[in-house]
Write a structure and sequence with these properties.
2% strand, two-stranded antiparallel ribbon, 11 helices
Length: 272
C-alpha cells in the first residue's frame, strides 16, 4: 500500500517536476546524436565518456526497476527506513534510465560507423568497466544466500554514482587538451543541467510534503547524481562559452570588396 500525500499541490508538483526532468534528461541525448548524424563524424566526442555513461545508466536502470517493481526490495527498503516513508523511485526514473541505456547504445554505435579520427578507448576505461562488472558478479553471489536485494542494488547505485563522477572527466580533459568543444554538443549540456536541477527539485517537493529528509538519505545516488551532473554541466558551459568559444566565427575571414584592375583582374581594396 502506498504512502499518502499530505498535500495535493505538492503531489502534483512532484509528478510534474518528475516528468519534466524525464523529458529534459531524455531529450539531452538527441542534440549529440543529431550532431553526429549530420557531421557523419564523432570527432570531439570522447569514447571513454560514452562507454562509462552507458555502464552507469545500465546500473541505474537495474536499481530503479528493482526498487520500483519488486515487492521484496520495497519491503526491505521500508524495513530499513520505515514503513511511513515513500520509496524514492518514481515511474519517470524507470522510464528515463531505460531510455538512457538505449540512447547511449545508439551513440556508441555511431562511434563504430562514423569518422572518429585517432580516438580509441583507453586502457584505464576498459579496466574500470571490467572492475565494475566483476564487482557486480561478486556482490550478486554474496547476496544470494541471504537475499539481501536492497543491499545489492544499493551497491549498484553507489557504483553508478561513482561512474557519474568519473564519466565526465575524459570529456572535460579532452576539451582542455583540444582547447575546443567542437564536436561536443552544448545542447546536450544545457538540457542535462536543466534535468538535474528539476529532478533535485522533485525530491525536495516529496521531502517537504512528508516532513522528512529520509528521501535523500534513502536515495543518495539520485541526490549525488543530480549535483554531480549540475557541477560538470556548469564546467562544460564555462568551457564552451568562455574558455574555448567556437573558432568557426574566427575562421571566417571578412571578404574584402574587389575592384577591377586596368588589366581586368580583381584586386582587393586595402583596409583603412
Amino acid at each position: 500500500m502506498g504512502i499518502a500525500w499530505n498535500s495535493h499541490t505538492l503531489e502534483v508538483a512532484y509528478r510534474v517536476l518528475g516528468w519534466t526532468g524525464f523529458f529534459l534528461w531524455s531529450c539531452s541525448f538527441y542534440p549529440q546524436l543529431l550532431l553526429n548524424f549530420f557531421r557523419k563524424s564523432v570527432v570531439g566526442l570522447n569514447f571513454n565518456y560514452l562507454l562509462l555513461n552507458n555502464t552507469k545508466h545500465t546500473l541505474y536502470l537495474i536499481y530503479n526497476t528493482s526498487l520500483y517493481f519488486s515487492s521484496s526490495v520495497r519491503f526491505q527498503y521500508h524495513l530499513k527506513y520505515g514503513f511511513d516513508q515513500m520509496v524514492p523511485v518514481a515511474a519517470n526514473d524507470v522510464a528515463f534510465s531505460t531510455h538512457a541505456v538505449l540512447l547511449t547504445g545508439v551513440l556508441l554505435f555511431q562511434c563504430a560507423i562514423y569518422e572518429r579520427g585517432n580516438q580509441s578507448l583507453s586502457k584505464v576505461t576498459i579496466g574500470i568497466i571490467s572492475l565494475v562488472w566483476i564487482i557486480v558478479g561478486v556482490c550478486s553471489f554474496i547476496s544470494l544466500p541471504t537475499k539481501s536485494w536492497l543491499w545489492l542494488i544499493s551497491v549498484f547505485n553507489t557504483m553508478q554514482v561513482i561512474l557519474a563522477v568519473i564519466k565526465y572527466i575524459p570529456q572535460a580533459v579532452m576539451n582542455f587538451m583540444r582547447k575546443s568543444t567542437d564536436g561536443f554538443s552544448i545542447g546536450n549540456v544545457l538540457l542535462d543541467f536543466s534535468g538535474g536541477v528539476t529532478n533535485y527539485a522533485q525530491m525536495v517537493a516529496q521531502s517537504i510534503d512528508q516532513n522528512s529528509w529520509v528521501n535523500f538519505s534513502g536515495n543518495i545516488g539520485k541526490v549525488l547524481l543530480s549535483l554531480v551532473s549540475v557541477f560538470f554541466d556548469v564546467l562544460f558551459m564555462c568551457q564552451h562559452y568562455f574558455l574555448y568559444p567556437s573558432k568557426k566565427a574566427a575562421s571566417i575571414r571578412v571578404k574584402e570588396p574587389l575592384i577591377k584592375s586596368p588589366l581586368g583582374s580583381p584586386v582587393p581594396l586595402e583596409r583603412v
